[in-house]
Give the backbone structure.
Amino acid sequence: MVGLASAAGLVGFLSEPDHELKVFALKSLDSQIDLLWTEVVNAVPQIEALYEDESFSERGLAALVAAKVYYHLQEYNESMVFALGAGKLFKLDNGGEFEETIIAKCVDTFISLSAAQRPAAGDQPANLNTAYPTSGEGATSTSASQTSPITPFSQSALPSKSLLSRQEVPGVDAAYPGGEDASVKQPETPLVLKRGVQGQLQAVIERLFEQCYRQKRYRQVIGIAVEAKSLDVLRRTIERAGEDEKKQHGEPRRSEELLEYVLDVCMTIVPERGFRNEILKLILGLLNEIPAPDYFSIAKCVVYLNEYSMASVILRQLVEKGDPRSLAVAYQISFDLYDNSTQEFLLKVRGEISELVPKSDEGDAEKQTEGEQNEPKESDPLLEGQSSSTQPKSQEATDGTELSGEARTAFKNILDILDGMKSIQLDLEFLYRNNKADIAILDKVRDSLEARNSIFHTAVTLSNAFMHAGTTHDKFFRDNLEWLGKAVNWSKFTATAALGVIHRGNLTQGQKLLQPYLPREHIAGVGGSGSVYSQGGSLYAFGLIYANHGGLAVDLIRDHFKKATEEVVQHGGALGLGVAGMATGDEGIYDDLRNVLYTDSALNGEAVGLAMGLVMLGTGNMRALEDMIQYAHDTQHEKIVRGLAVGMALIMYGRQEAADELINGLLGDPDSTLRYGGIMTIALAYCGSGSNKAVRKLLHVAVSDVNDDVRRVAVLSLGFILFRKYQSVPRMVELLSESYNPHVRYGAAMALGISCAGTGLDEAIDLLEPMLKDSTDFVRQGALISMAMVLVQQNEAMNPRVSSLRKSMMKMVGDRHEDAMAKFGCAVALGIIDAGGRNCSISLQTQTGNLNMPGIVGAAVFIQYWYWFPLTHFLSLSFAPTALIGVDQKLEVPFFKFHSNTRPSLFDYPPEQQVKPEEAPEKVKTAVLSTTAQAKRRAQRREKQQRRESMDVDQAPSTPKVSEQPEKMETDEGAAKAEEEGKEAEKEGQKKKVEREKVGYELDNMSRVLPAQLKYLTFPDPRYEPVKRPTGGVVVVLDKDPEEPRETIELKASNEARQQAATGESLQDRLQSAIGGAALETPERGGPEPGAAEGATAAAGVLTAVDEDEDGEDAPVPEEFEYQTDVDGEEE
């Protein structure tokens, strides 16, 4: 049809009584509406009247024309309503802008309506009372809810029960498309309901879904279903995908991939905890209906839902199948459960599984395997003690069936795995074998920092601890006893605790290593009293060795803690109890800690408050919260309030919406320390969620609170919320990193370090590099630590800037003009960047994508080093060995190789630091006057002229020194040039060598494999096949020829520990020698290659010695200078 110049005639036809003329006008306008809509606008009422006239046969056509006019007027709500009224005339397949816009609006409306119909009560856990506790005087949340120094800018008063700066309304949240403006969004729902087009809307959505089904675009439907919170659509889509595959005889792998996608979306995108649980239950039900379910996805759901009974049922079913693959899958699930679960969850699973193995059979199995397995007897009570605490009253075998010998062995192995012994032993062996720590760097740091200064001594101690974390290599202490002897008071406490970081996971020898340091009044036959600082540090170290493992260690530390009278020992005991008993929820331990808290001692109160939170980690225990918030308002000690504030945040770990009530109460408190705790509660309750409302609150507090500490931690906490979306953090904190306030700049630096740890993200490094030259010392400190966290395990091939950073840090630590705070950060950074002998990364999530609870807690407590240096050791909990360890069905480590399809240099260890010997200062050249130089040149010219005239060779030049000097200088310059050319040629040769480097190489089992390297790995050995796609850590491989002979890897770490225990002196002798100072002789007996325990034993005589000023830092200053060395009579 030829385009019309005007629509006046067609509009006039709409008023005619003839029915055909009206239909003709509508059809003509529909085809030309994009050109004529401006003239048709005034006729919209007539068109609407035709649509509402039920006697008019072309009502749908009238609705379509009206929809297009409203579309051009940008009245999209009205346009959508009339498009829905058009029925089938509105074609989804046209693909024009009008159709796409209306479809998007329909989807948004469907999401809003569906989400609004979902009850909000489902978001709150039914078994948790989140009411904020109030005191008898009303001094807690009552006043907090009325007055707040950080009232959100969007409201005049703080909402009573919301973390948001505005009330959360389903369907109006900005996260939904088109929902940014609540004033625009709210009228949309009543309009759809008023016009009565819900049925048409549902029909359009169904047509859209059906179109996606035909085109195999199931993921788009799943995305809409998740946003709309429609579990029915989600279930229907997954089931439809399976049916379509059956009709086409396709592989079931596609439906399994779809379930994996739904699980990934649920765990990483869905913000609400309650809805996420419902989706997980749905996935769990669908997985169980599959004939060959994905047990690893089931295990992930089970852990998150805390369904420990289902976990034990799955393991039992797999073992009872009896085939080798099912047994290998059961072992792999057990390893995954240990990596992703809390101690409380594992105890319950082990308690149910232990019912399947009668006690007599358990004892026989232990006796038979005692000599075969590499676990010493010390670990056996750990297993027994833990299982006994959760054993149900009924000890009868389930179902009355008799288990076969293979099943009993399998259940015994599963109990060992769930106990953590296997994983810890394998990680310890890996770190011991592959330790690549560069001692030269430590020596340089030690020589550059004055040990008499406690901050510098602590810095070297921390650098050594991080660099050798988990390796059991404490040789640095043995070789530097004189330096170690300069530690006094809290420096001695930190140095002793460092042994726990170095020997973390050394469960077989942990107690023996620390025996000389433990409080000696509890050791039979040994008198005397050592330094209380080394005693407290030893309890802290003991907890670090058994971190998140508990068992017998908790009982031992608890016994020392209850009997201790010294505040320093109580301080270390509380920290050790918290680390070892993490997330156990043990009420007895909590009561012991609370009793010490009520003594109102500032010295131990901070550690006790922190330990209370660690023990109740993630439980949301309201009794504990009521006690802690009440005492925080009663005490006058700021250190106690800070410890309790962080402890309350730990109790709400991962609770999300359930923590909102506590968050509002803490953020509204006049005490800045409690507001600090409120920010920490946001960080831990919403860690890894990427929650928009949490980020919005943190950014608001970061620019509005009056206290620098609160603002600093608010910016820093962004790293905890967004570490799963770390690419967005640099853009978010870019402006904050340039703030006028140094505390905000420090927080921005640490947020980058926490969120981007181990990624080597260039955008993060670009922001951190200028901060290394910041004018404020603690900002430089934070930038150095964060830079090390970002670049941990990065080599020059992965990130070219890592080598220049290492050189800058080595230069900074030796600069005498650098501030002490920056030097401290530099030393700690050098330890972090080489963490665990260059075999550990900093990870806040596990290899399977779940939250790494010890890692997150370790990072959260680590940042408290701002107030208390010994808490820096907590960062070691975030260290995750980057290993690939294959074990077979016998839980032994077979010798086989796997292939990495990359260049060897891409993921290789960084080269060792080349420490140049200090050169003697060069002599300053003598100044030569210009007149002297001219006289020498004239004398040379005269001499040459005389030679020509006489034609005689002058054997002895009259000025030999003048004539030889320039020749010598030319020779030196030539040699220097030749040397430079040689170096350049060598570099060119190295470049050519890199270019010629072969792609693809073999790696032995139990080798370092970085997370980025996993996608390049293959298993060419036909005998060993992994039961799941390798994600790092322990991988169970299926031995296809179990009867054939095989070679296994000997676990050296455990064997060496046993040999030392067998060949060394008795425990009594070691204690006596340590007390008497004879322990300093032990290094010479150990030979050139000291074992893991000898460094700790050698250091015992130094660290356990009582300091001269027994009163510590509070000792009175002598009146006269001569008295400072006369301390013999003052020790008592």
